[in-house]
Give the backbone structure.
Amino acid sequence: MKMRTSRVLAKLRSGNSASCLKVNIGDGQAAEIAAIAGFDCLWIDQEHLAQDWSVLNAQIWAAKSRDVDVMVRVPRGSYSGYVKPLEMDAAGILVPHIMNLEEAKQVVQMTRFYPVGKRAIDGGSADGAYTNMDFHAYLRDSNEQKFVILQIEDPEVLPDIDAIAALDGVDGLFFGPGDFSQGIGAPGEWGHPRLIEARKLVAEVANKYGKIAATSGSIDSLDSFLEMGYRFVNVGADVVGLSTYCKGLIDRFAKSSADQSSGKLSPGKPY
């Protein structure tokens, strides 16, 4: 029995780009709707959101049913918080706010099996097919098919970025523009020269070492991200889409109601 092949890694290793959507709504059905749309990966957040492990489990199952990856942004600190999403069979994890080389090395040690790291071994969860995978194949496939991406979102980490990208066991670097803009004292200034410079640097360094260059931003900026060398891009969030849809409906309802009240519309049929 083999471990599920990561859709993101398969696309990137074949020279293509991979799409991602952030799913904030803590529900398996929300994840499945996004997966049905055809994204390569769903980004589920445990750094900021409050869903429990059972909800995350349902979201991973829903995505896998459509052969879509899940990347879980983990909370900082606990090794078990890093490996549990992988054991649930998430395709990868995103570790926020890596500040230096030493922190990156610690993540590798906690999330990679021998000979790369010293991740705690179980094999009885979904990623190991509930002990139905060969033990050695489980360790090997986990190191090959589960991705570990480190989030670069603070200016303090930039001097170590080359050394971090060179680490065995680090699959990619993810530039986070939001917190980086705050870190340089220009929150929300997406066109700030220092932010643009850092975004370009992250892509350049990731590609230099054959790692995934990942970021997030508006779909309208996708072409510029691809030109920088990014190949794994989160282009939106479910809450943005739902909010925009609902706002559009209520704006149209309000306009029609106002037109009706002013006599611009003929009375419709009663129901």
Summary: Residues 174 and 214 are 4 Å apart (CA to CA).
